[in-house]
């Protein structure tokens, strides 16, 4: 350990602590704290139109996104995370068109194939870099399995809250 190593460690980003989740089976938790954006108002026509499933956005107050459900990570990219469990498949998409940033400003905290608990941190991201690149930083959560749920007589619904805390119920899947 060198004389100035403590300075380097002090500037390294700390991994955020997991957030507490509330709700029971079928709950999709908010991936961030912030203002809720209903599906029809999302700034991306694919998500807003429901082409991928029921979607809800959260305009984050800080640059971290948390797992909305427990399960296995099927996708772990800087801007997008897929999680699947026995009830549903969910995609968390950080920002709109942020794939164009090629990971710059994002620090992935998980790996594909990893088992993860709801409320665990997935990624930290620099909101200023996202804004400087000209992209909205809304964190969008999509229930990818919405059509499957509805085909078996179930339903998926979004919360009506205007502001939400990370880990609180954002959407619910029944059936």
From TrEMBL:
Ranges for domain PTS EIIA type-1: 44-145
Predominant location: cytoplasm
UniProt-recorded Gene Ontology molecular function terms: kinase activity
One record GO biological process: phosphoenolpyruvate-dependent sugar phosphotransferase system
GO terms for cellular component: cytoplasm
A matching Pfam family: PTS_EIIA_1
The UniProt record lists the keyword Ion transport: no
InterPro entries found in the cross-reference section: Dup_hybrid_motif, PTS_EIIA_1_perm, PTS_EIIA_component
Subcellular location: Cytoplasm
Keywords: Kinase, Phosphotransferase system, Sugar transport, Transferase, Transport
Name of the protein in question: PTS glucose transporter subunit IIA
Protein source organism: Candidatus Olsenella pullistercoris
């Amino acid at each position: 350990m060198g004389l100035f190593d403590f300075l380097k460690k002090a500037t390294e980003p700390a991994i955020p602590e997991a957030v507490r989740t509330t709700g029971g089976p079928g709950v999709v938790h908010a991936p961030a704290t912030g203002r809720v954006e209903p599906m029809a108002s999302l700034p991306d026509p694919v998500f807003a139109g429901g082409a991928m499933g029921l979607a809800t956005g959260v305009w984050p107050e800080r640059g971290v996104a948390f797992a909305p459900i427990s399960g296995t990570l099927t996708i772990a990219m800087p801007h997008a995370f897929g999680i699947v469990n026995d009830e549903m498949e969910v995609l968390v998409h950080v920002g709109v068109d942020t794939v164009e940033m090629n990971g710059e400003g994002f620090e992935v905290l998980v790996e594909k194939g990893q088992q993860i608990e709801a409320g665990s941190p997935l990624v930290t991201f620099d909101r200023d870099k996202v804004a400087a690149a000209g992209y909205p930083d809304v964190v969008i959560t999509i229930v990818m399995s919405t059509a499957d749920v509805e085909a078996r007589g179930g339903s998926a619904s979004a919360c009506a809250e205007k502001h939400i805390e990370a880990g609180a119920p954002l959407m619910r899947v029944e059936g």
